[in-house]
Amino acid sequence: MDLAERKNSSMLPEFLYNHRGSYSSPPPPVVGGMASYGGGALSSSSLHRRFMTTPALTAASSSSVGKAPEFIIPAASEGKIKMFSPEYYRACAIGGTLCCGLTHMAVTPIDVVKCNMQIAPEKYRSIAGGFSLVVKEQGATGLFRGWAPTLLGYSIQGACKYGFYEYFKKTYSDMVGAENAKKYKTLIYLAGSASAEVIADVGLCPFEAVKVRVQTQPGFAKGLVDGFPKIIANEGVGGLYKGLVPLWARQIPYTMMKFATFESTVEALYKYVVPVPKSECSKSTQLGVSFSAGYIAGVACAIISHPADNLVSFLNNAKGATVSQAVNQMGMRALFTRGLPLRIIMIGTLTGAQWGIYDAFKVFVGLPTTGGVVEEPKKD
């Protein structure tokens, strides 16, 4: 295998990305990371072509003529995008842009009420009362305040989050080797997602600062266009990034939980709930698994990251406030619980939708859905 081919070959394909068909004969033994077949070593792509041209598979294919074909999501090698190529990471970034930007914008009304409940709990005492109060004081359009910084900020964040997650996941797996990558896959998920989120939040932070001000301070600005220059004029460029550390504190644990829980839940669903292997599931079933696992992951994310979410809202709303001042003023109980039920609803739905959109886009461009069951090779 030459250097170029080795660079784009994954040390993870067997348990994360590989599409497995149903073959009539057992897989060949693996020697030194290569499949030994007929006395020679074959790469995974060569082995795939060899299997797909066997008489057994050709006959099986012929026997299915006249029957409604079952949709099987193809591996990336069967499509136009090569796994772990620049085009692959670009596709993941585009999928992340779509799934994060659109979903966060869609839940803007919930976010408006949540932020106001965090900032002024004595005024916004309940979820239903919060919605009614915003509409009463600001009109129905008040529920959509901050949609522009939300859309742009989370689109940038999503591109970095998903694109760099896939990049770091492969990079860290290659660093530790195939055996350790499989053995400690959860640590790979955690490290890859944390690294990606550090980068993603740098892009999100300025937009988050504008969003919170617009949503919680009526009259501060109409939106992104006048909000950005107003913060810079009053506080300098640093005013856009004063919430970066609390944002990291909120988003890094959130993203680590989001990706690790999602990947583990997908694997568990295919292993214990879905009655057939992933490779035999229809497109709708696979995307349904993605949404379900995403929702479960979202609930866990909301709980673990909620204290930091309260801090971000407080600091971006109070000029010159510090983290210690925010904690002292809010109290520990409020820090962990204020606005939590609404955030669980919002983040659970949002995260489920994000994974559904992300995997739907991957399917659209010929890539496999994320996660799946680890299939151990059969022993003689």
TrEMBL record:
User: What is this protein's name?
Assistant: Mitochondrial phosphate carrier protein
Q: What is its main location?
A: mitochondrion
Q: Which domain of life is it from?
A: Eukaryota
Protein's membrane topology: Multi-pass membrane protein
Note the InterPro entries from the entry. MCP_dom_sf, MCP_transmembrane, SLC25A3/Pic2/Mir1-like
- Solcar repeat residues: 87-171, 184-268, 285-364
Which PROSITE patterns is this protein grouped with?
Answer: SOLCAR
Report if keyword Transmembrane is assigned.
Answer: yes
**UniProt keyword Chloroplast present:** no
Q: Family membership, please give it.
A: Belongs to the mitochondrial carrier (TC 2.A.29) family.
Location comes to: Mitochondrion inner membrane
Which keywords fit this entry according to its UniProt record? Membrane, Mitochondrion, Mitochondrion inner membrane, Repeat, Transmembrane, Transmembrane helix, Transport
